[in-house]
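Run folding on both entries below.
>entry_1
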Amino acid sequence: MDPIACTNIVVKLGTSTLTAGTSSLSPARMVELVRQMAELHNQGCKVVLVSSGAIAAGRERLAFPSLPKDIPAKQMLAAVGQPRLMALYEQLFDIYKLTVAQVLLTRTDLADRRRYLNSRNTLSALLSQRVIPIVNENDTVATEEIRVGDNDNLSALVANLIEADLLVILTDQPGLFTTDPRTDPLAELIHDIVSPSIPQSVWEAVGTTAGKLGTGGMLTKLQAADLARRSGTTVVIAAGNEENVLTRLAMGEKLGTRFSPLATTLEGRKRYILAGGNHLPGILVVDAGAAKALRKGSSLLPVGVKRVTGEFDCGDTVKVVDSSGSEIARGLVNYSAMDLARIAGKQSREIEAILGGEYDDEVIHRNNLVLI
């Protein structure tokens, strides 16, 4: 395996990893994993942690003998356990003088485009300040998610959100096997999955059985890996108790089961932008100077916008055309049609005075623009 460039990394920790296979959170296991994340952080990586364990922390505090099956009871345990889990993380990361932030999400937060952008901007702001976001499914309000261990799939969505280079899903198994290693002594570890479609035999091997300590299982991890790699992220499922597993993976060592990305992160974003076809909600007419700058790879600034047509919101995909009506590009716009009409033709420094708040300097950032 080639070494992973140390840029954006998402680490997903399951309950079985955080408890070291017991019924309670394991501070010793957690501090070891925190140490590795701190090392990656100090090497310049932007690390986002997606952590399970809130329900386990609640069980421990209330002395629940086993994981309840009904959703309200799980939500109650999550409500009790979440602040305890975060307090422990804060203490452990503080050992390495690192600041953490709690981010609670549900899948619906990332399905709505505006909330998706808000979530992305929040994570970007935290990472720019060298803060480590700790993301968890909002179990106190989620329903179906809490039943299927959706922190696995949530980690894939977060990887897409920050355009991660690497997603590491740590569990109590060394990776994916050809059959269930708990029942078949001949089961073999699958080292690499590079085919566009995950073989049916692999889906059948993981089954649908959830873990005893958490709410997910290998099935949700496989689903998450398949989702993330389609967005351009390399994914590794590995054992959380493997010595220095995170730092070794970041250095390119071959551990666990590796899923090769099916596209670059840029290609994945371009596919999203182009997915709207010809039925887009808005058109931006730009002047000759802006058209020339766009073709050279620049962002679109409000000063270059001559006219705005259509109705659209922040985060929608719009067309960009020149004065003759020829399409130049498509991109994800940072303003609604109403706001953009007010700042069209203005300098970026005038935006705050016109709209009454701080906004992006760019109408469309070059990273969110596809030339036609």
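>entry_2
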Amino acid sequence: MPLADHIVVEIDPLQSIEMRPCLRAAIRLERIWGFPKLQRGIQEGSFLILSAIVRECASKDDAAQILAIRPVGKLINALAPACQSILPALAGHDAAKPDNTASTGKPVPFAEYFTTLFKIATGSNGWTPAEAYAATPAEIVEAMNGRTELLQAIFGSADKINETRLPLYPADDAAVHRAGIARLRELLGSAA
């Protein structure tokens, strides 16, 4: 179930397209334009910016169909609100979650943020590059949170794991044996 909704752009009752704020679109738009320029272009009704967002977020057929509509003024009026609502999702903002907490981390450039999301999706989550690029930034973050919760449920918190971990290079084999038996008894009960 995608976290970021598809944005539907209706030009008229017979013509509409769906746009999806996927990671691939976010990376490409940020690399070419940068988010401040995208925001400014949407506010100013720049057909160049609006069409770039549509080309990246919609299927090729839908984008070609919609961008061929004339007069351009009608098209700009229909695209601007949709592009305005998709831009925060491209930047990784999940509109479904209220942002009640102030960030305590240092600001990160979008390019670095998107690279980190790709690493998380393909590394930690085990997705293929195609799956990572097709997911939205919010989906990647939620999948990572779910995986973290799963690992914590299985293995406990990092503090608990560190306190029960055997030493890497024990002084003698008897100490390793005793520690292993103690850990097994702890996990299985006194039956071990």
